[in-house]
Amino acid sequence: MQLITLALVTGPYLYQRVSLIQSVQNNAPGKLQRRSAFSSYEVKFADRVRNCEDVILLDGLDGVALLSCDEARDRWNTVMVRKGSPCIAPEPSTGP
Questions:
Q1: Cα separation of 76 and 67, whole Å?
Q2: What is the 3-state secondary structure of 67-79?
Q3: Percentage of residues in the chain with pLDDT exceeding 70?
Q4: Does the residue 91 lie in any domain?
Q5: Which residues of 68-95 are buried (b: 16+ CB within 10 A; e: fewer)?
Q6: Which domain holds residue 63?
Q7: Count of the separate structural domains present in the chain
Q8: How far is residue 93's CA from residue 67's CA, in Å, rounded to a whole number?
Q9: Is residue 83, in this structure, part of any structural domain at all?
Q10: pLDDT tens digits, 27-60
């Protein structure tokens, strides 16, 4: 009787977890097909272009892209700041 009660109580929870685990296993990085839109590429200015989040490739201008970068991200990470911690603004950059 206790075994049946345990199965009835934990059944829905375990069913959801099995589906989640199967989803994670099916989408593991090793199982994903590697795709590349470019036959070859080169990162220019790798020492100067850092912490970029958004990229727009400009149509009609081969090899030209607009980047949204935050060079202060090395010193200031907005995600890792705890609520209530003292806010210290990053120092402004004077440019290259």
A1: 19
A2: EEECHHHHCCCCC
A3: 78
A4: no
A5: eeeeeeeeeeeeeeeeeeeeeeeeeeee
A6: 2-27+47-74
A7: 1
A8: 17
A9: no
A10: 888 887 877 777 777 777 777 788 888 888 888 8
